[in-house]
User: Fold this.
Amino acid sequence: MPYYHIDMQGNEIELPVTKVVCIGRNYLDHIQEMHSAVPEAPLLFMKPKAALCHMHDNIVIPTDKGECHNELEVSVLLKSPLKNASEDEAKAAIWGIGLGLDLTLRDVQAALKKQGQPWERAKSFDNSAPLSGFIPFHLVDNLDDLRFSLTINDDVRQKGHTELMLHKIIPLIAHMSSVFTLDCGDVILTGTPKGVGKLMPSDTVIASLENYLTVNTEVVAE
Ligand code: ZN
Assistant:
């Protein structure tokens, strides 16, 4: 099914489907579990349009490329373009927030890291960004106080709190817009807390953004 942005009720949001801009290493506990270093500047990467899919449909993972890991992240949908934006301008461009999975082929990524190559083969494959519906921004109290969790087969695997981000959402979006223009319809994925791990076909998945939304879904083989 072709992807289009949806709200919490599943209604289409009339914004273009463009790209996903992501930050790596934005939570200290995840940096520690990966034995990575804290980057000097935000570590940015992108996923193309074909990466986007609806999280409530099955999560489709490749099974012939090593381990595919969950990374549950707060997502942000933009309703207007941003270039060299101030924090006020970044805030004014937000349509709403939700949850997204930054699916990652971890073995592929490890090989790319070793060779000093970019991460697209590990993170930018088709359906690598399953997204929830979006909650309109005016209903959101505080972007820096959002709690979210990922439960796999009844075990809580990830628990996040946006207060613990190294780069908070609004300054992060402003910064991204100083690197490249953000477009109307772009989705931002804001980094994963610890608890990344292997997904397997037939895993049951519950992604929850406390007080706002819950998505129940299942992993299937590509
Ligand atoms: Zn991520």
About this structure: Residues 22, 24, 71, 73, 102, 191-192 surround zinc ion (CB under 6 Å). The chain has one domain: 20-221. Residues 169-179 form the longest helix (11 residues). The chain has a mean pLDDT of 97.
